[in-house]
Amino acid sequence: MDARGAAETAAPSAVDRAAPRPVRELAPAVRWADPRLSRFDPLERILAFDDFNSGTHGWVELLGNYDGRGDLDTVDDHMRDFRPPQLSSCSFFDVGTHGAMSGTYALKVATRPEAGHTAVAIRRLTMAGRGRVQLETYFAYKAEAASEENQAAAQPGSGEWDGNTHPSETQFGAFTIATDICDGVRYHCVARYLNTDHDNRSRQQWVYPLVPEPTPREHLEGKVKLPRTADFTAPDPDDWRPFGEPQELCYNEVPTKVNWHYLRWLIDTRARANVELQVNDRIFDMREVPVPAYAESYGSLQNLLNFYVSVRTNTNVRNFLFLDSVLISVDW
Amino acid sequence: MTMQQSLSVVLERNTVLSGEFATEPYEAAWAREARWFVRVLEMRGVDAWMEATTQISPDGLHWCDLDGGSVNVRGPGVVSWPVREFGGWLRLRGVVGGDRAAEEGVGAKVMIYLALKS
Fold first, then answer.
1. Do A309 and A324 form a contact (C-beta atoms < 8 A)?
2. Residue A19: its pLDDT value, please?
3. Rounded CA separation A81/A62 (Å)
4. Rounded to 10 degrees, what is the CA torsion of B60, B62, B64, B69?
5. Is residue A310 within 8 Å of A118, Cβ to Cβ?
6. Which residue in A39, A109, A207, A229 has its CB near the most CB atoms, within 10 A?
7. In chain B, which residues have their Cβ closer than 8 Å to the Cβ of A91?
8. Yes or no, beta carbons of A84 and B5 under 8 Å apart
């Protein structure tokens, strides 16, 4: 038979691919009984469960695109130094190993000690269906403790220690969770916790971008050329808008205490829309938060489903985002 | 049997180093062994050379040299050396210089890889 004549059928629907009903009914009970899963609230199908005691699970440094000769000098300046993630035991100068929420290791994404520097770790998947997609994680965020070498205490954002709030808290800039999705239309769902603004003033505000991120192709076409420390998600601070009321998180006073926060972020790839964001005891309705899409089409990306996390410092102090574990689930 | 873990990371990518330098701290307490790969793409300046030493740290803030963890490079190519019993943190500290008094324009364009195994 001519292979070209082989029948092609549409991908099975969520209903067709669903587990048999008795299994579906049993799944929540089984998940509740598993201490590794009972702290999550997954959708029907778990696509990925990343426990960083067993490796990086595909979370890798994001790098911009390069030419056909493999010349890395052709990578955009602002996308060539996002730093490799680390499997961290959360070790500090004062107490040694803090450890993760589960086991010893967490994924650590770390900036350079340079105002405007961003570190990004990305996880690359594709979509076998359309519908709700959820990312859950337990995270912590920290600025680097001061030392004689890093001179953090003398950098912008620092101040007087009042015995409670520590100066390093306002030396942490922002962390972001985001996607890169393409179903023919390419778009990004993005949520950022803006801890401080560019002047290191406390904001503690969730924000979203009005524009899609600049791409290497746009640079190649002469549309954009961004400097090394540009905010790659949306370079212009005026292109960000708040959603919800400010939220105070648990930095816990000093840069060496790690308290794990629960985050659950739900999007809908059928509607190309945000749905909601839960961070500890707060749930933000994101249905009205716009999702910027590219006006032009991109090849080579059919069913792209990427997640990234980033951390961005506004001062010359390293900023860290720690993920204890990540669970990605879908309803297809 | 549980398969062993491994992880290779790129700490510097087409970076031109000159004068004294140190790579960003890298946390790898999970790894039993490590190996540096320094790929020199280009040496710039007259009689340029690069010296690099493995440094270790208990906390990522305070550093000392690890004995036997040094290389001296004078031209393009790949050099590599192993690291063991390093505790939890690794970085490379070094200097790029020239043999002549005038060190203007001296630099080393490098890729620096760290390969780790449990």
1. no
2. 79
3. 8
4. 20
5. yes
6. A109
7. 27, 29, 58-60, 88-89
8. no
Nearest CB neighbour to B26, from listed A55, A86, A104: A86
Q: What single-letter DSSP state applies at residue A10?
A: P
Kindly list the distances between the CA atom of residue A212 and the CA atoms of A70, A187, A215, B55, B60, in Å, as whole numbers in the listed order: 26, 7, 9, 41, 36
3-state secondary structure of A270: coil
Chain A residue with CA closest to B12: the answer is A81
Q: Give me the residue label for tokens 């490098």.
A: B110
CB contacts of A96 in chain B (<8 Å) are 58
Paired sense of beta strands B6-17 and A118-126, if any: unpaired
Please indicate whether, in this complex, the C-beta atoms of A150 and B28 are within 8 angstroms of each other. Answer: no
**CB count in 10 Å sphere of residue B69:** 20
Residue B7, chain A, CB below 8 Å: the answer is yes
Q: What is the tens place of the pLDDT at every residue in A92-144?
A: 999 999 999 999 999 999 999 999 999 999 999 999 999 999 999 999 999 99
In the beta sheet, which residues pair with residue A323? A107, A139
CB contact under 8 A, B5 and A89: no
The answer to whether the beta carbons of residues A273 and A287 sit under 8 Å apart is yes
Which amino acid is located at B107 in the chain? G
Enter the ipTM.
Answer: 0.96
pLDDT tens digits along B57-113: 999 999 999 988 889 999 999 999 999 999 999 999 999 999 876 677 899 999 999
Give the distance from residue B26's alpha carbon to the nearest chain A alpha carbon, in angstroms: 7
pLDDT, mean over chain B: 95
Tokens of B16: 């031109």
Amino acid at A154: A
Look up residue A98 and give its amino acid: H
Percent of chain A residues past pLDDT 90, beyond the cut:
87
The pair of structure tokens assigned to A140 is 């912590």
SS3 track for chain B = CCCCCEEEEEEEEEEEECEEEECCCEECCCCCEEEEEEEEEEEECCCEEEEEEEEEECCCCCCEEEEEEEEEECCCEEEEEEEECCCCEEEEEEEEEECCCCCCCCEEEEEEEEEEEC
